[in-house]
Amino acid sequence: METILEIKNLNIALSNGVKIIKDVSFAIKSGEVVTIIGENGSGKSTILKAIMREDEGQKTIAGAISYCGGKNILQMNENELQHFRSTVAYVSQRDDYNFVGKRMTVFDIMMDSARLYSAQTLTKDDIRQLFDKYQLRIYDENSGKPLFYEKSSPAKLSGGQQRLLSIISSVAVRQNAKLFIIDEPLNNLDFKNAKRVSNLITKIHRENPEAAILLVTHCRIFPAITRLISIEKGAIVPNEEAYRCFNCFGKADNDGYYEV
Ligand SMILES: Nc1ncnc2c1ncn2[C@@H]1O[C@H](COP(=O)(O)OP(=O)(O)OP(=O)(O)O)[C@@H](O)[C@H]1O
Ligand SMILES: [Mg+2]
């Protein structure tokens, strides 16, 4: 199986010299669904951000990260980086829509993601189909109207609706990507939507079996996960445990889907 992502000796220090990531190395192969677990503040998001070259600020970052055996991402120039980012389905831990342009709509967010990913132009029908396919709907609670058209402003969506928007625009729009990186998929979601997002990850794993999926999550509700990586104080620690779904939301069916 092809190695999709390889991290070698990743070390990250803050400007005050404090090391927040210590010699982290791991690889993810095609078809794997890997989750990084660890306490709050242990460094999980910092690793994902290093892969995406986000939030570099005053950090000192050393090591090598390669995507499909290509150039070290840490040494990519701006053009190479933009291209790499456009190929990956990445969802960061925070949904921050306060800074998107005032005229930007939910529809535009979806369109931009598709355009950058595959130069594809989505129609309203395509978008409706994506929401339908994964049962991820964003409705106005009062009017019952769908909120994914021109007039909906992402900044005005609720916390859970914003999470769904991030997931549908980055993951569902890019469902045939080779690499998915999702930081805390279930933030802000109610139980039904949490099950739907688990179903989406299962569906992508089944329909795009060559993809590598890297998650950070504290929840154990994902039947699709194949391997755990445990992190403590910025370092990988041995982990004998196999991933086990805790069945918090009831049992998934034999194919890994929850009934919603
Ligand atoms: N840009 C930064 N400046 C200062 N400190 C930082 C920065 N980025 C990360 N840190 C620190 O590094 C540590 C790891 O943060 P990180 O966000 O990776 O944790 P996490 O494992 O994702 O935690 P959580 O489960 O709460 O999301 C924290 O102590 C955090 O304060
Ligand atoms: Mg985090």
What this model shows, in words?
- The model has no long low-confidence stretch (mean pLDDT 92).
- With 260 residues, the protein is α/β, with parallel strands linked by helices.
- A six-stranded mixed β-sheet has the order 5-6-7-3-8-9.
- It starts with a strand and ends in a 23-residue tail after the last strand.
- The chain is 28% helix and 22% strand.
The assigned structural class equals alpha/beta
Give the helix proportion (percent range). Answer: 25-40%
* Poorly predicted regions: none
Bound molecules: adenosine-5'-triphosphate, magnesium ion
CATH structural class of the largest domain: Alpha Beta
Instruction: Categorize the overall geometry.
Output: globular
Rg over CA atoms, rounded to whole Å, is 18 Å
CATH architectural designation of the largest domain? 3-Layer(aba) Sandwich
Distance between the termini: 34 Å
* Number of separate structural domains: 2
The helix tally amounts to 6
CATH superfamily label of the largest domain: P-loop containing nucleotide triphosphate hydrolases
- In round numbers, the mean pLDDT is 92
CATH topology of the largest domain: Rossmann fold
Extended strand count:
9
- Secondary-structure element order, N to C: EEEHEHEHHHEHEEE
Main sheet specs:
6 strands, mixed
Strand content: 15-25%
